[in-house]
Design a protein that fits this description.
Number of helices: 7
Low-confidence stretches: none
Helix content: 55-70%
Protein name: DUF5681 domain-containing protein
Shape: flat
Radius of gyration: 33 Å
Order of helices and strands: HHHHHHH
Structural class: mainly alpha
Pfam families: DUF5681 (PF18932)
């Protein structure tokens, strides 16, 4: 091993942004094992499916599960029709969450659905508060030094030595 290679390895191995294989794997290329399995099964899909159905009908639980999973896959998520009114304040968010809790109580939506709604409302409230804070900071930043001093002094007029305020204030 040369001294240059040793230094490169000690410095962290590879250089950032430089690929050892600049062309990478060709687009659309497939794994060799996948190709081998497809070659073996090519033309046999119908016969294998028929055999799985026969086994399922004969009472093979694993085959039955396989068939049912293909016919009716496990539901991962579903759309829920629940009208969310616009949120324009934190009070609106509280009212919406009360409506969500009521919908769970009467069985219109599941507790899991309610948890997802609460996440949506929570993110919206955080965004609403961040936007309000940004608006207030912008208004404060637009005040002149003289206005800020008047506010800080409780409305009294203060005399400020020249040179302490920014130009134009």
């Amino acid at each position: 091993m040369s001294l240059a290679n040793t230094r490169q390895k000690q410095a962290g191995g590879f250089k950032k942004g430089v690929s050892g294989n600049p062309h990478g794997r060709p687009a659309g290329s497939r794994n060799k094992a996948t190709l081998a399995v497809e070659t073996l099964l090519d033309g046999q899909a119908e016969a294998l499916t028929q055999k799985a159905v026969e086994m399922a009908l004969a009472g093979d639980v694993v085959a039955l599960r396989l068939c049912l999973d293909r016919i009716y896959p496990v539901r991962k998520d579903r759309p829920v029709a629940f009208q969310l009114p616009p949120i324009t304040s934190a009070r609106d968010a509280a009212d919406i969450m009360a409506a969500v809790a009521q919908a769970v109580a009467v069985g219109h939506i599941t507790p899991a659905d309610a948890a997802e709604y609460s996440k949506v409302v929570d993110v919206f409230v955080k965004a609403y508060h961040a936007a309000g804070l940004d608006d207030r900071v912008t208004r404060v930043e637009q005040l002149t030094d003289a206005e800020l001093l008047r506010i800080a002094s409780g409305g009294r007029t203060l005399t400020i030595p020249s040179g302490l305020l920014r130009n134009g204030d």
